[in-house]
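Minutes, project huddle
Topic: does the predicted pose make sense with guanosine-5'-diphosphate-alpha-D-mannose bound?
PN asked that the exact inputs be recorded in the minutes so nobody has to dig through chat later. Recorded below.
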Amino acid sequence: MPRLLLTGANGFVGKILTRRLQDVGYQVIALSSSEPRADHGADEHLVCDIRDADALEQAMAQAKPSHVVHLAAVSHVPTSFKEPLRTWQTNVMGSMNLLEAIRLQAPDAFVLFPSSSEVYGAAFKSGLALDELTPCEPLNPYAASKVAAESAFREYFRQGIKGVIARPFNHIGAQQSPDFVSASFARQIALIEAGQQAPVLKVGNLEATRDFLDVQDVCNAYIELLKLADKPGHPNCVNIASGRSLQIRQVLDLMLSLSSATITVELDPERLRPSDIPVALGNSTRLMQCTGWTPSIPLEQTLKELLDYWREQVKHTD
Ligand code: GDD
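Predicted holo structure (tokens), as shared on screen:
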């Protein structure tokens, strides 16, 4: 049975991906910086901060994986402005520590590195669906740190480590932190419906557009990308996008239409960013061609499930 080391296993995607990987036959060794919840469900657990190179090398020696998925990262753009040092140490030096640990302890492992569509940054101003040949022009510390980490991965690939870089666009679903836009809106609507928040929904920039995917579709793409381990000559960097861009205002309207509550929308200046990508749209042709992946879950379904999830959550927060 293939043994897969998953960093960031306690995060939003990590928890969902663990189950999905087990379903398709991987033994999952979950690595996280804090103790996992009792119901996490991975086959093995390792607690290790990826900024600690020695500890990570030891964890790699213990896990002896055939595959690695490196999800661990500071992934919230506003946090990256507030804490640039932690962002760079985790996203760049953490990735370097991982690559060194692979080189020393699991040199035959195939590694999938989820980077981010944020790397394109200012290039999105063209309004086009960007493909992987577009030069990166990051606009925030998170995006810049992902470009740097990609560069580290490419260098190790050049030296013979096997793997692929993915650039997922915005992915959403139940269990995502309300630090992110759709979860924030869903949580607030649920709180308002339950009478736990005044009927005023706080928002940031509603003019931006994003290319949204259900987290399950992104997990499908990761599972397909891991199969490239057996396909020599595969591309080393692929977008994961829906190819459709929606304004945040439209996402808000769709979510409000799912509620019968009367809700006023109010701009919260604290939610505005020093710089925000105005339009994000991706071209996934390369991914589709090398794996056959296509997205399958309509956004409307994802938003409904997200709102139902938060309705359940707020029942327990009286
Ligand atoms: N978070 C948040 N909260 N964003 C808001 C809000 C709000 O109340 N109101 C409007 N927005 C706008 C943001 O300004 C941004 O334009 C958009 O909604 C999406 O914000 P986020 O959900 O925070 O995601 P992101 O686009 O910054 O980054 C996400 O996607 C990347 C991939 O494209 C993150 O998940 C990154 O980790 C990921 O790499």
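Observations noted during the meeting:
- The chain is about 40% helix and 15% strand.
- Residues 75, 77, 116-118, 169-170, 179-181, 184, 203-206, 208, 210, 248, 271, 273, 276 surround guanosine-5'-diphosphate-alpha-D-mannose (CB under 6 Å).
No decisions taken; revisit at the next huddle.
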